[in-house]
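To whoever is on call:

I kicked off a structure prediction for a single chain this morning and the downstream step that reads the tokens threw a length-mismatch warning. I double-checked the sequence; it's 439 residues and nothing unusual in it as far as I can see. Pasting both halves so you can look.
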Amino acid sequence: MLRSPCPTRSGIRLCQACEPVSGRRWIQSAKRPSSALRIGALSPAAAPRANPIFPIAARSFTTSRPCLVVKWPQSPQTLNASPNRFGRTQPAGHPLPDLAGCVAAVNRITKAFLAHSGLPSEETTLKALQGCAAIDLRLLGDAVERRAEDPASETRPASQLLGLDRVVPKTGDKPVPQASPSLRPHDVIDKISDAAYAIVAHPTVVITRKVLEEYIRLQARLGRPQTLPQVLALYAGKPRPKLASGTVQYVERDPNKAENAVDRAVADMALDAAIEAKNLEAAIGILENTYASKAFIRSKIINKALLPATAVVTTPLVLYFIATELAQMQYSLDSQTATNMAFAGALCYVGFTASIGAVALFTSNDQMKRVTWALGTPLRHRWLYEDERAALDKIACSFGFSEEHRYGEEEGEDFMWLREYILHRSMVLDKVDLMPGMN
């Protein structure tokens, strides 16, 4: 019997948060507005916190490989235990974490840090972030799983009674105060994420590499990568505070300078956090503020192209010196003619061999899985934006099918947008002539 096709679910619409820092045009679809996320233009105080959005691509394009359930022998301690969503057993009667205590600890850390006068040092900022990360998130994760397994437990009378505050009896005309809603594990996780963002986005905080790594590591543990693009933009262009005459002054910074580029290892960590959380919006925002930024491209030119360029410039001088020495070893021609002939021959040989090697290096595609370069893309463009292509390749492989023979069968608004986005970056997703069996 043929199955009726499932109705297509509407995906997310990426907010306007990623400013096109790479200098290339963005997508302007016929029926959808541009998806530029202008997080770089927002001030740290006015930057809103994005709600957690789980794209439809993460739900609809997962692997079709069947899940194998392994039955473990039950021990006497786990006979009365209830298995959670990931197969781990939670012993019966395990106490819930003290959510109110966690919130109070986070508020205490945030208040103490923001009340600090002057410019906080890097160690102070790291201690504040580590204090937020010191909360046992495993208990919160278990509580989230139990709530997800039994969503009706929040509406039961018993759970409602457990969340009531102490009710003050009515005296005179004073009304009875309403009961405050009980805290949920998701609220505590959001509270920790908001506190970490408030610490990093504070105007007097200097976001160094260690602070950025600690923040990314914390948000990855929380599963909240929504603010990572904003913090990466602040890392590159946040005004640097300076203490002068007892007052704090701010020095503007150019986010396009090579010294303000995000390191490759930090960018990979942030992208992995967004992919693990199945957040396509955050993944694209991280890509725009790291691999596709002008600062990253300039840093790559300085670190990787400066030495080869110096070798190319000095090679003719070295060849001419060698040709001059070779001309002294013969007596058939005059010295100048022999020098010119030897120099021309050596220069043609080295130039031809180096050109063949450069073309072979820039056109190699063994590392490409799904995202490849479009025909006619200049070789210099391929080398400069190879890191961006690799990041888009990782995103496409993470949000699409895991089976190689099913590449190109993804559907849905999110994946169609991703395919169109890749096409506007001079790249092609699932090029037919490069797929297995088609070359």
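Update from on-call: the warning came from a stale cache, not from the record. Cleared it. Sanity check on the structure: The radius of gyration is 29 Å.
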